[in-house]
Design brief:
The chain is an alpha/beta fold. It contains 19 helices and 23 strands. The strands form 5 sheets. The protein has an 8-stranded mixed β-sheet with strand order 6-5-4-3-2-1-16-17. The chain has a 7-stranded mixed β-sheet with strand order 7-8-9-12-13-14-15, with no helix packed on it. Strands 20-21-22-23 form a 4-stranded mixed β-sheet, with helices on one face. A hairpin with a 5-residue loop joins strand 18 and strand 19. Helix 13 crosses helix 15 and helix 18 crosses helix 19. The protein is elongated.
């Protein structure tokens, strides 16, 4: 009963999410968890949303025992976290390396979901560059409780020459700072001005510095200084001085603790274009992390892990690889878009079901999400930019890859959570092993499908402009279409003679309610693809509402365009095929592209 009540308390509240509960004027309280300075577990994890579709930047999850931090929230984040049991309700802060569709496309849906959780809804601190204000202003028009948008934007007053980063979070557990990177166009002497900048141009480099690890407590030294075992031992381990129990003197932590170990440091670097590289390389606030003698400072710190979010077209260049080497022995994780990631579907649960259905009936169900990699000339050029001798040692990010920060003994990469790789053939083999009799079903459906096609092709021509209402093709009478007589009554077409005797004549359609783009459309001219049927909230197997109507030669239409629609199109038609779909959306005099929202 207790667990059931707890689940109900955080269940999605549809009424509140729709703004009908009368709570619009109430302010949502931010989560206020007490920091744990002696955190026993901490890691950063790659959440590979968009790795297979190349339309969304991966998110990075910074985990502590009592705090959760998310960097970037692209489209599909909710669905991805639902499948992998990552609780978004536990997140305290969301940071954006840029404010654009790649990094922030999933924020509106995430905020709406948090608004419907619990009795009062949940909120989260949102941090990003100044463009975040425009996004927050647009979201307030449909967020039911406007007070839940706790956004914090910071400007770009700190240039590359500034040696001090902007400190955002500084508590007993972690210190998170931001450094600004703006592009330089046309070899400008300085970074581009606000006049030349475009929305989403400003990129942020985040540094996450964990608190130092206190040295080991020595009971023998404490006893020699007159301390008795008890609460004072704990105070000393927390860094507080105490008075001796036997002698009149103060005992300081340095008297009974061994040497401290510097806390691990993680950098998140987003360099979206080659125009940003020059400004990135000149960041003085990053010099304290470099081991190169040319940028060594008195307060130099060793970086344990650097996560690179830039695309491979940038990170594979010789200049970028040489810059990576300046940090010395550091674990580099390349999390940007790479062509080979397109082979591996991120939403494995959905891809598994699609593969099962495709095996049974490939005529209706394509195998979405499994696409062979075909390197283009541009990809080959990227590989040639940095040879093996010039490249800095690094690892390619994989979905759910972790880099453990604490316990300190486990510092390093952890691949235990990475899902096992499986191809379409592996999933089909697994299905056949579980249900051996299903092996004969595809052949039976194929024969049945072909017989239905043959029956339809044997029908007499009914005219191009006939208004036909087909019944399900699995019906034995499906080959007989319904037609309309002159009075508008439906009559089953048995043969031409009976129709002529009844005074029936073919006539064009004249339905004023039918859109002009659908007039004269037959079954071969129109195809409907359900990209999402999850209504207001995505789930493991269902995306939010989106339907694509393919009119082939006449273009196409989208009925609703929920979060993740572009990714679903790419999983269905491939990356280049999805581009053609978007390009061929029908245009009307009123709007540039035909997208209807319910």
């Amino acid at each position: 009963m207790a667990s059931g009540g707890k689940d109900a308390a955080v269940a999605f509240n549809k009424t509140r999410a729709e703004g009908k509960d009368g709570r619009k004027d109430r302010s949502m309280e931010l989560k206020n968890r007490r920091a744990n300075p002696i955190s026993t577990t901490s890691y950063v994890q790659i959440l590979g949303t968009g790795m297979d579709t190349q339309d969304t930047a991966p998110s990075v999850f910074l985990f502590f025992d009592k705090q959760r931090y998310m960097f970037n929230a692209g489209e599909g984040l909710q669905r991805f976290c639902t499948e992998h049991k990552i609780k978004l309700s536990k997140i305290d802060h969301i940071f954006f390396t840029r404010v654009c569709s790649e990094t922030a496309g999933g924020l509106p849906g995430l905020v709406l979901t948090l608004a419907g959780m619990g009795d009062e809804g949940m909120s989260v601190n949102i941090w990003g560059p100044s463009e975040l204000d425009f996004l927050a202003g647009a979201m307030k028009s449909f967020i039911p409780n406007r007070a839940m948008l706790h956004t914090h934007s910071f400007g770009v007053e700190h240039s590359a020459s500034s040696s001090q980063p902007t400190v955002i979070i500084d508590d007993e557990v972690v210190r998170i700072s931001a450094m600004f990177v703006k592009p330089r166009y046309n070899n400008e002497a300085k970074s581009s001005t606000d006049i030349n900048s475009k929305p989403g141009d400003t990129a942020i480099v985040y540094s996450c510095e964990l608190a130092e690890i206190k040295g080991k407590f020595d009971p023998a030294k404490a006893a020699a200084l007159g301390l008795k075992p008890g609460p004072k031992y704990r105070e000393l381990q927390l860094g507080n001085s105490v008075r001796s129990d036997k002698i009149d003197t103060m005992v300081h932590p340095s008297d009974v603790l061994g040497p401290s170990i510097p806390g691990p440091i993680v950098l998140l670097v987003d360099c979206p274009t080659q125009y940003h590289m020059c400004e990135l390389f000149l960041l003085q606030s990053l010099s304290r992390f470099c081991e190169d003698s040319s940028c060594q400072t008195e307060n130099a710190k060793k970086v344990n892990c650097i996560i690179h979010l830039g695309p491979s077209s940038v990170t594979n260049t010789v200049e970028y690889q040489n810059w990576m080497k300046s940090f010395g022995i550091t674990q580099h994780i390349m999390a940007g878009h790479e062509n080979k990631n397109m082979e591996i579907p991120v939403l494995k649960g959905s891809a598994r079901i699609s593969s099962h259905l495709n095996f049974v009936c490939p005529q209706l169900f394509p195998s979405s999400g499994f696409w062979p990699v075909e390197p283009s000339n541009g990809i080959e050029l990227e590989k040639n930019k940095s040879t093996s001798s010039q490249a800095c040692e690094s690892v390619t990010a994989e979905n759910l890859l972790k880099f453990r920060l604490r316990p300190y003994a486990q510092l390093g990469l952890d691949r235990a959570s990475i899902p096992s790789l499986c191809s379409h053939e592996d999933i089909v083999d697994e299905l056949i092993s579980e249900i051996p009799e299903i092996k004969e079903v595809p052949e039976q459906i194929s024969k049945f499908w072909q017989s239905s096609v043959d029956q339809r092709s044997a029908l007499p021509p009914d005219g191009k402009h006939m208004l036909m209402v087909e019944e399900p093709w699995i019906n034995k009478d499906s080959c007989l279409p319904d037609v309309l007589d002159e009075q508008g009554n439906s009559t089953k077409s048995q043969d031409d003679s009976s129709l002529r005797e009844s005074g029936w004549r073919k006539r064009p359609k004249r339905n004023s309610e039918t859109p002009c783009c659908l007039e004269n459309a037959t079954r071969e001219d129109l195809e409907i693809t359900f990209l999402g049927t999850g209504s207001s909230q995505p789930s493991k197997y269902r995306n939010v509402s989106s339907i694509y109507v393919n009119l082939f030669a006449q273009g196409g239409m989208l009925l609703d365009c929920g979060e993740g629609t572009l990714g679903q199109l790419k999983r269905r038609f491939g990356v280049s095929g999805a581009d053609e779909v978007v390009k061929n959306l029908r245009t009307t005099p009123e709007i540039s592209k035909c997208i209807f929202n319910t």
